[in-house]
Amino acid sequence: MYEKETEELFSQLKEDADISRFLSENEGEMAKPLHVYLENLLVQKQLNKREVVQASLLERTYAYHIFSGDKKNPSRPKLLALAMAMHLSLSETQYLLRYAGLGLLYPRHPWDSVIISALERGLSVKDANDLLYSLGEKDMLG
User: Fold this and answer.
1) Who wins on pLDDT, 1 or 96?
2) In angstroms, rounded to a whole number, what is the distance separating the alpha carbons of residues 76 and 91?
3) CA 76 vs CA 65, 109, 140: distances in Å
4) What tens digit of pLDDT does each residue of 2-44 get?
5) Is the dihedral of CA 110, 111, 113, 114 positive or negative?
6) Residue 90 above 80 pLDDT?
7) ∠ at Cα 78 (73, 84), nearest 5°?
8) Are 50 and 60 in contact (CB under 8 A)?
9) Among the residues of the chain, which ranges form H helices?
């Protein structure tokens, strides 16, 4: 996806006092919008967008707005619902959260622990929400 490692970019950024030059020289290394990354994931994993949207349990129009880029900053639970619907691994989900500028799943937070477990067990969004509810967590995915 990228030619340079993130550490190389950090190093170059710290050494280069001209941010405009850094950005210009590394234009191809910059993260693309979230919707482009999500579309690439669909292609990479050979997933059908309609089926992913359905499995996410998100409101259909809202989910399509995320995929089109009309909704630029989806909430963490909504993005996690998409990750689960796309059958992303825990590491892929953490990367997606980082890519979107959202907090990573943290096992010291009970809600996050349930989601981590659900991802590791390959649960559906519905089953993850059922598990959250059964454990007394008020916030649901999606």
Assistant:
1) 96
2) 16
3) 15, 14, 11
4) 788 989 999 999 998 899 999 999 998 998 999 999 999 999 9
5) positive
6) yes
7) 125
8) no
9) 6-15, 19-25, 34-44, 49-56, 60-68, 76-85, 90-99, 110-121, 125-134
